Amino acid sequence: MAETATLTDSRRFFFLYDSSKVQEEVDLTRDGIYYFSPEDTPIDQQELLCGQLAGVCRCVSELSSSPVRLLHLRKSKYAVRMKDKFLWALSCVVDIPDVSVCDLLDQLIALFCFYNGPVRQSYQLYSKQELALRWARYLCHLQGGSTELHHIFSCLRTIDSTHIDPLLLLKAALILQACQRCPLVLAGCILYRGRVVSTQMPPALTVKVMVYETQTYSQDFQVTANGLSSLVGSPFSSTATTQVFLMPTELHMLRCPPVDRACRSHCNQPPCQPSRSRLLSRTLSDTPTTDTDSSSLDPTHCPPPSYKTVPSSPRSSLSDELCFSPSPSRVNTPIHSNLMNQSEYFTPDSHVHSTSNGTNLCAVEEHLAGLNIKQDIDANSGSETKSNGLNSDQDIQSEEIKAPANGYEQSNCLDNHSDLDSQIKSEENKLDANNHVTNKNGNGETEEEAKTKSKQINRKLKEKNEPTNTPSPHETLEDTSLVPLVLYQHRVKGLVLALLVEPEFITDHSAREEVHHSSLASLNGLEAHLRNTSPGTPGPPGPYTFAHYDCIQNTLTTNVCGRSVGPQDQAFVKATKLVHSHFSRLDTLQEAIVRNASSAVYGTRTTAQETYFLQQGTPVRNSGSPDPQDSAFSLPRKARLRLLKHGVNLL
Amino acid sequence: MKCLLLANESAEVLFYWTDTEFEQRVQEQYGVSQEEGERLPAFEDSINTLFAPIIISCSTMVDRLGDNYTSFSTENNHIYVLHQFEECLYIAVNGDGDETEEDLKRKIFVMKKLTEIMFGMVTFSGALLRKELRPQDTEQRNRLWKKLRSLLETYSRLRENDQSFLVEAVERLIHPTLCEQCIEFLERRLVQQINSNMDRMGEEVLHAFILVHTKLLAFYSSRNASNLYSSDLLALIILVQDLYPSKINLDETSELESSSVPEVFYTPEPSPPERESVRQRGDSPPVFQFVDPDVQMAEDSLQTLEAPTPDPSAPSRVFLESKECPMPHSMYCLPLWPGITLVLLTKVFFYYKTSKAKTICTVSMSYLFIYLFIYLKSTFTSQLQNAWTDFKNKAFSRSGSGFTRDLLPSCRNMKTQLCGVYRQFFAAECMGSSQRLAPHLQERALSMVQEKLMDWKDFLLVKSKRNITMEFPGLIHFIYVDRSNGQMIAPSLNVTDRTVSELGKGPLADFIKKKVWSLVATAQRYLQKGYATVTLRDGDYFYCYFLWFENETGYKLEVIDIPSSPDDGAPVGMLTCDYYRKLLRYYSKKHQNEVVKCYELFTVHLGVIPNEYILQHCSQLARKLWEPTRIPLL
C-alpha cells in the first residue's frame, strides 16, 4: 500500500503515452509509454501512472466529448494534451498557476514538432531511445528557467539590458536586418550565452530556436567553472543548419510581417523581390557590401534558377563548402548541412538505416521505391535532421557521462569527421543512383505539389502501418500541415546568430556566402563587446521588489534575483502567482492589491504588460479593517514612482 | 449540464442527482452504442458504468500512490470535482459553465452536510451509509433519493439567488423593537407553554425561531439547550425552504392575497398510513446482507432509517452538532403564512439509554482515546468487543505492529462498530418511534404566533425584500458579515423580483449580481491563501474586501498571518466545515483573555470614485453597520 507515496509530490513527471498501442487485454502498458521523465522511474511506477491517468482521461473525455486539459491531484497537478491517441502529461507542484503549466506543456510539444515534425511520423522514423534524448533536452531547456517567476510567466530569458550599452542592442538589430536582405532569410535572432539579445521572431518561435543554444551555453559554463581550458576563450566559430517544421500560422507571420517587408507577402517564394526593399533596409545598415551582394544575389532570387544553379554533383558542392569554411573545426557543419540538403531531395538511405529504428523505415523505403518520389517524404519527415540530430545527441550523451569538456567540441568534430568520410561515400553512391530524381526535382516542383504528394505518401505510409497504428486519416493530414523550413545558426563563441531561412537557402551558395560574410565581422565585434561587458553585479536591491512582464515580447524584468530568495521575495512570488492566475482568468481585471499581515503586493496590467510591486520593510501594524491611512493603498503611487527608473511606465 | 454522485469503494453508486441535460447526454451516448432493437439500460446502470472507471482509478491511486484526484477539466470547459470522505467518493460535474471548480467542491461539502443532518454519525461508516442511502426497498429508496435531490436543488437555488447562502451567514431582519418583542413572545409564551404541557409526549422545545423567507426575525434558545451552530442553522433553513419554498418569481400581490387564508395550510393527519406500513416492515426479519462480515450488527439495528414522509405533523429528524457528536432532534416546521415560518427544535427524549449513548458517542468521536473505552467496554456489543480486542492487541502488545499504517484496518473496523452502536442508540431508535408533539399542540403554537404577527406580516414580507438601505454616493453594493455569530447584512439584490430592488432591475442589476457573486468567490480564494485584504479594479467597478478582528468592545485587534489552506481543503464558509470557527479559534489562541470577534466587509463602488473616498466609505460603513449587529438575539 502506498508503495510510492513520495512519488507524486516531490518529482515532476512528463510522459508521452500512445493508447493505440494498448488496446487488447494482452497489451502491456509499457508498450504505450513512448517517453517518461525522470527516466530512472521504475517501470512499474511508470506503468501505474500512465495507465491510471490515461484511463481516467479517456473516460472523462468520452463523458464530456472533449479532451482533458488539466488534472489535479491532492499533491500535484498535470497539464494534459490528448491528440490522435497520444496523451502528453506534465506535472508540477500545486501552487504553480494552471495557465503556466498548460503553457509549458504546449511549448514542449511545439518544440518537439518544431525540430522533428509530426509526432506519429517521428516515432515511425526514429527509435524511442533517440527521441527520448530529444524530449529530455527540450524538457531541460524549458524547465531550466532561472527563477520561479520565469516559470510562472513562461517567458524568454533575455540579457540584462540595463548593464549593456544600448548601442550594442542596436547593432544586434542591424545585423539581423542586414541578414534579411537575403530574400531567403525570413527572420532571425541573436543570442548570447543562452539569452536573447535581439529577435525578429515572435516569442513562441524564439523559444524554440534557443534550445540548442541554451544547451551549448550550459556546457561552456561547466567548462569555465571546472577551471579547465575554456572554449569560451578559444577561437571558435561555426555554422550549422537544421531542418525545422513550422505551423502554417507561424510561417505566415514570418512571410507576411506586418511592416516594411510587405513586398514579400505577395509571393510565398521570394523570387522577384524588387531591390527597392533592400534599399530600405540598407538605410539602417552599416555594412558596405550591399551593392556587390545585390548583384550576386539577384540570380538566385527566383527558385527555378536557384534550383538550376545548384551543383548537382555532391562532390563539387562538398568542395565548395570546404572552401568556405573559416576554420577546420567547422568542417563538419557545412558538410552536414550539405548532406542535409541532399537528403532533403535525395534519399540518404545509408544514413537512415544507420540511425533509425530500421524495420519500419525499411518497409517504408521499399514501399516508396515503387512510387519513385522518395524525396518528398524525406523532405517532410525530417530524416535529414538526422545528420544534425546525431551530432547533438552525441552532445547530450557526452555531457551525461561527464566527459572532460576540454576540447570537447573539437574532438567531437574530429570523430564525426572520420565517421563522415564513410557517410559521405555512401551518400555519393546513393546520390549517383538517384540523380535522375534530382534533375526531375530540379525542374521546379512547386511547394504546393510537393506538399500534396507528401500527403499522399503519408497516407500510403499510414495504410502500410495500419495493423499497428491506426490514426484516422484526417488526423494524419492535420499533422502533415507542418511546413519544413531551415534553421541556420552561426556561432561565434558565446554568440549565436540564428536565422529561419527558406529551404532553398541550403542549396543557394551565394546566399549563404553573403549571409555568412556580411554578418561575420559584425558578430565578432558584437561578441567581443558583450564578452567585455561585465555581467554587472546587481545593484543594491531597492527597498522594493518588482516584476514587469511584457506580454507581447514575452519578456520579464525583475529585481528578484536568482535562487537566493528571501522571505520578502517569497511572499512576493506567492502573491504574484495568485494575481497572475487571476488576471489570466478575468480579462476585465486591471488592478489588484492583496495584503496579509506581513506583506502587501500590488499588481496591475494592460493588454501589453503585467506589473507586480511589493514595498519592503516591516509593515506598519494595522488591524486590516477598512482604513484610508493604510499603507497598502499607497502602493500604486509608489510603484509608479519607483518603477520609472526601471523603464516601466505605469502612468 | 450538471451531475452529482456518491459512490463507495466498490464503485457502487449510493446516490446520484443529474439535471435533464446531463441525463439526455448520457442516454444519447448509450443510444448510439446500443444494438438495434436492444432496450436502453436503466439510467442508474448507465451512470454506474460511465463513472466506474473513474471511481476505480481513484481507489487505485489512493492505495498505490497515496494521492487522489481532486479535479479534471476538459478543453470544452467541463469540470469534474472529486472528494473522498471516509469510504465514500463524491463526484460533481458541470458542463454548462454555471459553476466553477470551487462551486462544485462546495456543493459536494454541502451534500455531505445534508447527509450528516439526516443520518448523523452513521455517515462515518461507508457500509452503514450505503445501507441508509440504498435501502433494499425500491419505493423507499426512490422516496429518499427524491428528498435528497430536492434538498440539493433547493440549496443550489438559494446559493444562486440568496446572499445569505452566498456568504453562508444568516441574514437578520433589521427591526430591533419587533425582534425583541418576538423573542420575548417565543420565550415567555410559546416555549414555556409547550414545555409545560402534558401532551408534548416527552418532547422538549430547545430552540424556536421565525423565518421570513430565508431571513431570521427572531431566535430563542432555552436555558438548557446547547448552542445551535450557524452551519446547522443554515442547513435547517435549506430544509425549511425545501418544504415551503419562497416563490422568488411570484409577485408581491398574489403572495399577499393568498396569505389572507392562513388556516387552510395546516391540516394535521393523526396517523399517516404510509408511516405505519414502514414500521411494520421494520419489525419483520431483516433481509439485508452486509458486504463485510465484520460489520455484523445486532439485529434490532438493521431496520433502515426512514426518509421523512410528507406527513405535515410528523417532525423531520435532524442531527445537530453538539460538543460530543451529532445529536438527534425533531424539527417542526409550521408555516404561518407563505414566506413566514415558525420552526421548533425539540430534543428527542431517550429514557434510560441517553446517558450511556452519549458517552459512547464521545468515545466514537475520538475512538483512539482508549481509556474511556476501557471504562465503558462492558456496555458494548460482542462484535465491538472483538474489534476492540483486536485493535488493542495490534497497537499495544509487544508482538503487535504499534501505531503504524497497519493499524488502519483495525481502526476502521472499530469505527464501523462504533457507528453501528451510534446508529442503534440514536438513529434507528428515533426513526422508529412515532414520538412527536401532539398535533393540537402544534396547531396551538401556530395560531399563537399568527395572532401575534398578524398586523406585521405584510410589513415583514416587504421588509425582507428591502432590509437595509445605505446612502453613499458611488457605493453600489455591500455585504457586511459578523463571523462570530454567523450573521450578515446586505441590501437586497432580488433581480428576478417584480419589485424594484436598490439596484433597479434588468440587465444592469443582473450584471451587478454576477459581479457580487464573483467578488465573494474571489475574496474567499484569496482568504484561503492567507490574504485578508483585497482590492480589485475590474472594468468600471472597484471592489474591496476586508477581514478583521475586534474585541467585544469594538476595539480593532492587530492583524495576524492567516495560515493558507490547501487547495483540496474544505471551502471557506460556514455551512460546511466551519472555516470561520476554526479561524476564530486560531486567533483566540493569541488573545486568550478577551472575546474575539471577526468581521468581513465586501463593497462594490463605481470605478471613477477616487480610491481615498472609497476607502473612507468602507471605513464609515463598517462603523455604521457595527451597531445593528448589536441587537441581542436572546
Automatic annotation (TrEMBL), chain A:
Domain of life according to the entry: Eukaryota
Q: Which residues fall in a compositionally biased region of kind Basic residues?
A: 453-462
User: Low complexity bias: where?
Assistant: 274-300
Q: Where is the CCZ1/INTU/HSP4 first Longin domain?
A: 13-117
Instruction: Show the ranges annotated as biased composition (Polar residues).
Output: 309-319, 326-335
A GO CC annotation given for this chain: BLOC-3 complex
Positions of the UniProt region annotated as Disordered: 267-335, 427-477
Q: Which GO terms describe its molecular function?
A: guanyl-nucleotide exchange factor activity; small GTPase binding
Which BP terms from GO are recorded? melanosome assembly; protein targeting; vesicle-mediated transport
What is an example of a Pfam family matching this protein? Intu_longin_3
Residue ranges of every copy of the CCZ1/INTU/HPS4 third Longin domain listed in the record: 543-638
**InterPro entries recorded for this chain?**
CCZ1/INTU/HSP4_longin_1, CCZ1/INTU/HSP4_longin_3, HPS4
Q: Any idea what this protein is called? A: Hermansky-Pudlak syndrome 4 protein
The species is Cyprinus carpio carpio
TrEMBL record, chain B:
Q: Which BP terms does GO give this entry? A: melanosome assembly; vesicle-mediated transport
InterPro entries, A to Z: FUZ/MON1/HPS1_longin_1 (IPR043972), FUZ/MON1/HPS1_longin_2 (IPR043971), FUZ/MON1/HPS1_longin_3 (IPR043970), HPS1 (IPR026053)
The biased composition feature labelled Basic and acidic residues covers 272-282
User: What residue stretches are annotated with the FUZ/MON1/HPS1 third Longin domain?
Assistant: 474-627
Q: Does the keyword Magnesium apply?
A: no
Any idea where the FUZ/MON1/HPS1 second Longin domain is? 204-346
Q: Which GO terms describe its molecular function?
A: guanyl-nucleotide exchange factor activity
User: Looking at the record's lineage, which domain of life comes first?
Assistant: Eukaryota
Q: Where is the FUZ/MON1/HPS1 first Longin domain?
A: 2-158
Give the Pfam families listed for this entry: Fuz_longin_1, Fuz_longin_2, Fuz_longin_3
Q: Which GO terms describe its cellular component?
A: BLOC-3 complex
Query: Which UniProt key words apply to this protein?
Result: Membrane, Transmembrane, Transmembrane helix
Q: Transmembrane region positions?
A: 334-352, 359-376
Transmembrane helix keyword on record: yes
Positions the record marks as coiled coil are none
Q: Where is this region: Disordered?
A: 259-285
Q: Which PANTHER family match?
A: BLOC-3 COMPLEX MEMBER HPS1, HERMANSKY-PUDLAK SYNDROME PROTEIN 1
Q: What is this protein called?
A: HPS1 biogenesis of lysosomal organelles complex 3 subunit 1
Q: Which organism is it from?
A: Cyprinus carpio (Common carp)
Taxonomic lineage per UniProt?
Eukaryota, Metazoa, Chordata, Craniata, Vertebrata
